[in-house]
């Protein structure tokens, strides 16, 4: 059975949204890179703000898809020491 793109996105969204990172992690257990996803709402914005407050930095551009009339957004974040810096020409 072949999975469609929309079905694959739903699986990825469910996997990430049901496996949200614990905001009380200490430095040793924090992941160097995270990709936050969810509906485009105040709760998602708060999750990004909380991560920035914990010392993460934005990594790359945000993404947005429209699925069944719902905007799903995503933003990569990483710890500063894991950020590669600007691309070199």
Fold and architecture overview:
The chain has 89 residues and is α+β, with helices and mostly antiparallel strands. It is 28% helix and 30% strand. It is built from 2 helices and 3 strands; from the N terminus they run H-E-H-E-E. The protein has helices spanning 5-17, 42-53, and strands spanning 33-39, 57-67, 70-78. The protein has a 3-stranded antiparallel beta sheet, with helices on both faces. A hairpin with a 2-residue loop joins strand 2 (57-67) and strand 3. 8% of the residues are buried. The model is unreliable at 18-25 (pLDDT under 50).
Distance between the termini: 43 Å
Strand content: 25-35%
Q: Which sequence of strands runs across the widest sheet?
A: 1-3-2
Task: Provide a count of the helices.
Answer: 2
What's the SSE pattern?
HEHEE
Question: How many DSSP E strands?
Answer: 3
Regions with little confidence, pLDDT below 50 for 5+ residues: 18-25
Structural class: alpha+beta
Mean of all residue-level pLDDT scores: 80
Largest sheet, if any? Answer: 3 strands, antiparallel
Label this structure with key terms.
alpha+beta, globular, 89 residues, three-stranded antiparallel sheet
Write the layout of secondary structure elements.
Elements: H1 5-17, E1 33-39, H2 42-53, E2 57-67, E3 70-78
Antiparallel strand pairs: 1-3, 2-3
At a glance:
The protein is α+β, with helices and mostly antiparallel strands and 89 residues long. The protein contains two helices and three strands; from the N terminus they run αβαββ.
């Amino acid at each position: 059975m072949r999975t469609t793109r929309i079905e694959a996105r739903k699986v990825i969204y469910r996997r990430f949204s049901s496996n949200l990172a614990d905001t009380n992690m200490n430095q040793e257990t924090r992941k160097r890179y995270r990709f936050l996803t969810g509906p485009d709402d105040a709760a998602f914005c708060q999750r990004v703000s909380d991560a920035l407050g914990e010392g993460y930095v934005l990594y790359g551009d945000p993404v947005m898809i429209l699925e069944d009339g719902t905007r799903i957004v995503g933003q990569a974040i990483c710890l500063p020491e894991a950020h590669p810096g600007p691309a070199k020409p």
